[in-house]
Amino acid sequence: MTRQGTALGALGSLLDRSLAQIAEASADARTYDRRTINEVADAWDNNTFPLFDAATARISVGRERRARAALAWMAELGSERRRWMVEQAAAAGHPVERLLPPPVARPLRTRDYQGHVTPSVMPLTADAALELATDYDLAAAEVRSLLIERVGTRLTGSLVLVASRRYDGGAQAGDPPELHLLLEDVTDVRFDSDDRRGAVLRCRAEETVIGVGAGGRLRATSGTVYLDDPTWRLSTAGRAADQRTPPREKRPRRTPERRRPRPEAAALVAARLVHIVMLEIRVAGYATHYADRIPVRLLAGALVGAGTDILDAGALRGGRRERAFRDLVETWIENGGPALAPWFTDELRQVASSELLPDTTRGWIEEVTAQRAALPHLGTGQDLDPPLKAELRLAEYTAAHTRYKTPRDSSAVVLLAHPPTGESPSRNWRLRVLDVNDVSRFRLRSDAFGGPHQVRTDGETVSRESLILGQGSLDVRGSKPRP
What we know:
Number of strands: 17
Number of helices: 12
Radius of gyration: 25 Å
Distance between the termini: 50 Å
């Protein structure tokens, strides 16, 4: 059935393209792209059921109308989401731009419910650096966290500075402000947790350089900054912005998705599984601790082609539709192979226990799951010891601090890609997450990301250990990593 140029075809193709993107981003641990995995999977948190709603409408006109509404709802999240939709649909041969309502221009500054002007994300430019230095004591700022990550083949960075105000924030000032700096295309890193006080921002058109402490630095081609400062309106920059920002208008909230009856029977089971898979994948992309525990590539591969298959099944009627969605679910289980079959079994049983399903559908689930053992927690099996050789994918440091009256210990997370070990039949490189608590040292240089390095763990005491990559380009010391 041809759907080229239709809203329904575009919507189904977006799921197909999402699964292909996720599979590509997770195909090789050495080019693992956590950001893409997180952003793409996140698109289907609120859009999986609208897809099934459109696919299962009674007539073709209704399917197309619902698909247009679903595309508009998906695009409303912002310009980045809209750009992604247009690019991915075009890659599948669907010109989706003409199916979307015109984009809504967003103001540079907004006001909160009290009418106070609020900060926004702004590019790191010379003017922005001057503005920050005017309102915050950068010379006494401290690094609260640092994250350097290889996204695909590029290095990106995130730096959070805590700096006292140079202006009077009043009695309700609360915690010191946090300056969140995001860096793109990082070219140079030198950081030592023992030298993290003081920051200097030098921003030019061709590059951004952030000096940290006496000898640390971060160099990147560009970046942005966001201020987590509830009293920013009282700063020099905030007062100036207040004069330029119109009064807050009562704007309608984002138009809620029209509530329709949920899919029924096997179609509901299929919808729940797609939604659960995307949430599971998003966890691996969002929370670094789970990057090596959730088999993203296998999950995406199990559902390959699901967008097109869902539209085909939804176009059928009665018993043929029920049979088609059952076959589709069983195909996903078969695609997942022995590694995912127990997980699918457990999820199917949970769906059966939490949804109102016809007895025939419930009986089908019992048949599918009868010969399989449930597995409560999805995992790939973890080695207890760090690999001997690895490539660094991510290094994150968080200093001990108190925020909102909650104390937090220092910590570090290291994400490695390493070749297969032991008797593993797979020739694919794998991901490995190492957590370090109560960190006493965190030193990082950009050459740590330069290629495979030897990994050493030197035990200092029974409870203390150090993780060293190569010739000390990464040196982390603290409590022993958790398995």
